[in-house]
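WP5 quarterly update. Target: Peptide/nickel transport system ATP-binding protein. Source organism: Arthrobacter pigmenti. Length: 268 aa.
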Amino acid sequence: MSSNNTAPVLELKDVKVYHRARTGTLFRPNIVKAVDGVDFSVHRGETVGIVGESGCGKSTLASVLVGLQEPTAGRMLFHGKEVKARKAAVRKQFGRDVSVVFQDPSTALNSRMTIQDILVDPLQIHGIGNERTRIAKVRELLSLVGLPQSAAEVIPSQVSGGQRQRVAIARALALGPSVIVADEPTSALDVSVRAQVLNLLSDLKRELNLGMVFISHDIQTVRYVSDRICVMYFGRIVEEGPAAQVFDHPTNEYTKKLLGAAPSLLHV
Ligand SMILES: Nc1ncnc2c1ncn2[C@@H]1O[C@H](COP(=O)(O)OP(=O)(O)OP(=O)(O)O)[C@@H](O)[C@H]1O
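Structure tokens (predicted):
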């Protein structure tokens, strides 16, 4: 459930991300408003779903939330403090506290590294622990995401797609984040394993009191995991509220259209 009596871990205030489109001219550029004035927050212990069709700005919003993209305008607050690109201490803490799970674990994981090395890597980068404690952490992470200890010795291509996404989730957990941003985390997986990965994310959120931002084009999938839902349309959040309310009593015409559209690909 949302813990709205506490401060949000991440907060966006009137965030805009504008791009210059390839079409247009030097003097009359066409501007793409990928994100166009978004207010957003996520607290520990809640999953906020962001849903909308392809091109509505979900991935751009995700890249702002994880610090990969600077907004054109607006502010991002991290534990109430503004995240400034050049403030090294805030960025370092931000890097530990906010992590990301991408759509396709096959491209997100280094294919030449063993799973143990993949999981040790963020600990080494952040100078956490020594060799012994890092190996112990790898064991803990593998069991947290339901992988056998033997997975440590192999490379990503030697495990299944669902297991690879579990490795990506384990890596996202390595530094003990308070928020995970999951951008279409089940879309590249076989239908048969999607529900397992969604259940894992929900269980981890509960056990570790994580804040989770769950992004998908599939409103049924978003409904399955989210406490709160934000519906995006052309760079804006057009409807926001508790999942049951948005799902059962949508007020926005676009939300109603999304709900009436194609059946879920989740099949749970
Ligand atoms: N670097 C860029 N330059 C120009 N336009 C961009 C750039 N990045 C994104 N866009 C445009 O911004 C809009 C939002 O893109 P974004 O990828 O965030 O949407 P999305 O909802 O995540 O879609 P998808 O699920 O297909 O990735 C799209 O119209 C896209 O073409």
